[in-house]
Design a protein that fits this description.
12 helices, two-stranded antiparallel sheet, Dihydrolipoamide Transferase, single chain, 2 domains, mainly alpha, Chloramphenicol Acetyltransferase, elongated, three-stranded mixed β-sheet
């Protein structure tokens, strides 16, 4: 009976008979798609793989000799079908439930599909050019690191007293004005720290003014405006000028005068939480 059905293609007789001998209970003249056997060459193992995954060999492009469907062809077909489903359901579309029950492979619920992007080029703004210039110049200065600890208990006691006075002048004082004034007093004691090399690199210029810069995060990026003549300013006057620079920076209205002429810079890292040594052991 089987030989009669596939007589038109004698090449497959041995292959079909081999499958019948191995699994006679899985093949019948009623349930088997014999047209698929006639048109597509494939080994019993490949046919079994396709059958287990509900794949018709007629849908698979064979890359073997005489168009034979190989195991790799079926696996590639399965992978392509999974990719198509991923693209269709990456935003939890209506087919997401079907993917969850897919017998081929369980698909993760969260799927991200990469989109093709295009590089863009934008010219530097005036602020960015200034940052690039100043940071490049800073790299020419010899670098060194120094760490120290200072007892500021008296400053902690003094701050509430100064704060009550500063509020009368319309400014809320923080520790930063004290740090700026302390830096100025140090520069007066060690003036070489407030100096710079001449263009010829054979002499030092000692700056008479302490124009102390403070790094600030602004809508235009990191900028360093400076407070002029700190050596002649009081704590409250420094606090007022610092407040003005911070406000101007927040609305993008710092002037070239605010950003130029600095002789020394402080960087405020903000609030830092420390873990006691007892908690580390």
């Amino acid at each position: 009976m089987i030989k009669t059905i596939i007589a038109g293609n004698a090449e497959l007789v041995d292959q079909v008979m081999d499958q019948v001998a191995n699994k006679p209970d899985e093949i019948s003249t009623e349930s088997t798609d014999w047209s698929s056997y006639k048109k597509h060459l494939a080994t019993p193992a490949v046919r079994r793989l396709a059958q287990e995954n509900n794949i018709k060999l007629s849908d698979v492009v064979g890359t073997g000799k005489d168009g034979r469907v190989l195991k790799e062809d079926v696996l590639n077909y399965m992978e392509n079908k999974i990719h198509e489903k991923l693209v269709d359901t990456h935003n939890f579309g209506p087919n997401a439930a079907e993917l969850e029950k897919d017998p081929i492979r369980r698909i993760p619920k969260a799927v991200h599909v990469m989109e093709k992007t295009i590089d863009t080029t934008e010219k530097l703004t005036a602020y960015q050019k200034g940052m690039f210039k100043s940071m490049t110049q800073a790299l020419q200065i010899p670098q060194f690191g120094l760490g120290d600890e200072i007892d500021v208990s008296n400053l902690v006691k003094l701050k509430p007293i100064i704060k009550s006075i500063s509020e009368k002048h319309g400014v809320s004082i923080s520790y930063m004005p004290f740090m700026i004034k302390a830096a100025s007093l140090s520069l007066k004691q060690f003036p070489i720290l407030n100096s710079s090399l001449t263009d010829t690199k054979d002499a030092l210029t000692y700056k008479s003014s302490h124009n102390i810069g403070v790094a600030m995060d602004t809508p235009h990026g990191l900028l360093v405006p400076n407070i002029k003549n700190v050596e002649s300013l009081s704590i409250i006057e420094i606090a007022k000028e610092l407040k003005r620079l911070q406000f101007s920076g927040s609305i993008g209205q710092l002037t070239s005068a605010d950003l130029s002429g600095g002789t020394f810079t402080l960087s405020n890292i903000g609030s830092v939480s420390f873990i006691s040594q007892k908690k580390l052991f």
